[in-house]
Amino acid sequence: MNDRASTDLTPFVRRGVDARGVVTLTLDRPQAFNSLSEGMLAALQAELDAIAADDNVRAVVIAAGGKAFSAGHDLKEMRARPSQAYYEDLFARCAHMMLALQKLPVPVIARVQGIATAAGCQLVAACDLAVSSEDARFATPGVNIGLFCSTPMVALSRNVSRKHAMQMLLTGDLISAEDAARIGLVNEVVLPGEERAAALKLAQKIAGKSTAIVKIGKEAFYRQAEMSLADAYDYASRVMVENMLARDAEEGISAFIEKREPKWQDR
Length: 267
Known about the structure:
Elements: E1 13-17, E2 22-27, H1 38-52, E3 59-64, H2 75-79, H3 84-103, E4 108-112, E5 115-117, H4 119-126, E6 129-133, E7 137-139, H5 150-156, H6 162-171, E8 175-176, H7 177-183, E9 188-190, H8 195-207, H9 211-225, H10 229-244, H11 247-257
Helix pairs in contact: 1-3, 4-5, 9-10
């Protein structure tokens, strides 16, 4: 790594947690537009691994310090080690981190301000939900420098329609937060400065649900999305059976019938 020792991961990502079990991970490399350097990837992976093993976490917000959310990979760092083996390892580790977001048993919300480009845009797309400031901008601009955004394409094309994805990938143009919401890349657009409160409100709303049921639902959502229609219905039906037998399903249904608030046991 160029900017910090590999053993010193915490400065790359600041971690905060509130009383509701919402963890906020803040990318903290503003001098480099929060680029996903080796250190940043390692720090994010370490935090996600810790969250996956922590039953007290109920939702995660990925945020960023400074003017940019993330400008993607650190091109200066990449150019300093121009070898096939290095590039293969770097992109494999980045893909592993992006997949870890999906595999977390709790939802992950991107809180976007400024620009989110290339792998930074990929990070937004890899999160389950996204809240954006009006002044945020999104792009997959690799084509402009002879480096097609092939890995960001994977997450992007699973969020937006093919034609919208292809337009972003082939032109490299920045799109507005409003356009990002229109094509399905983000869920909500708020006034500049209000994205923190909006993301936390959304996270806390989800944190109030049963974590056991949210876990079942998140895993099922991504698994069925890769199946044929018939296989998806077959799989989802089995999930519904499992869900109906869960303690919190029994409690939730009873609470609904009895017109009271449910008391989740997260099982």
